[in-house]
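Support request from a user on the community tier.

User writes: "When I paste my structure tokens into the form, the page sometimes reloads and wipes my input. The last time it worked, I copied everything first. Here is what I submitted, just in case something in the input itself triggers the reload:"
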């Protein structure tokens, strides 16, 4: 078969990005973290002082926010108006802003073609909130990756602590629960499992086992389609 498109959706803290990136490397696919595009737009809105409760103000900032993904030596880097912001978009402040930004229809429309073009030109593993339902509805493989809320919060807490962030587990869990609610209840492209997606719950798995599970699902699904 030609290029293979893999859509991985799931809630915040499910390990989508790290697991998808590792699986892509193992399989020789391109990895595309679509959430990073929304985070780049969110960073632009934060920097420019937009009211994140106002979809209109967010939409007004779009023309001055050029978000793009560049593959440098096979590794995805995220650029905002020519600046590499790959690390700057991972703060808790930008995470919350991204949740608000991603609910704005104009933002989703602006970023849709960027994501689809990457999938059309490469064998790709793409992760986000609505990849299998909206962005790549015809993906060869769809996976809904999840884990229990407390486990997801612990993973995110450890990740933030390793980066030197000053947070408590309770803060991370509350933030995660709030984002889960926002993502599943928004009017535009809410987070949900696609009907033809395979559910992958990694609650009782370590990282290596989670990556292997995703690779096994991809292998099985692509084998069926040959």
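"...and here is what came back when it finally went through:"
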């Amino acid at each position: 078969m030609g290029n293979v498109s893999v859509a991985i959706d799931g809630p915040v803290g499910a390990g989508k990005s790290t697991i998808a990136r590792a699986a892509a490397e193992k399989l020789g696919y391109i990895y595309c973290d679509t959430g990073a595009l929304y985070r780049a737009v969110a960073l632009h809105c934060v920097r420019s002082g937009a009211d994140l409760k106002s979809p209109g103000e967010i939409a007004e900032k779009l023309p001055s926010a050029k978000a793009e993904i560049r593959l440098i030596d096979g590794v995805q880097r995220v650029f905002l108006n020519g600046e590499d912001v790959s690390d700057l978009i991972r703060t808790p402040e930008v995470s919350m802003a991204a949740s608000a930004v991603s609910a704005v229809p104009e933002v989703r429309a602006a970023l849709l073609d960027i994501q689809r073009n990457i999938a059309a030109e490469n064998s790709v593993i793409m992760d986000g909130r609505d990849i299998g339902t909206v962005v790549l509805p015809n993906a060869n493989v769809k996976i809904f990756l999840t884990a229990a809320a407390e486990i997801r919060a612990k993973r995110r807490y450890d990740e933030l602590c390793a980066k030197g962030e000053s947070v408590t587990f309770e803060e991370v869990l509350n933030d995660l629960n709030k984002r889960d609610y926002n993502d599943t209840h928004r009017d535009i492209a809410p987070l949900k499992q696609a009907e033809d997606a395979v559910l992958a719950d990694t609650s009782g798995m370590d990282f290596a086992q989670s990556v292997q599970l995703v690779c096994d699902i991809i292998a099985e699904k692509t084998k069926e389609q040959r």
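Agent notes: The reload is a front-end session timeout and is unrelated to the input. The first strand starts at residue 5 and ends at 9. Residues 207-225 form the longest helix (19 residues). Escalated to web team.
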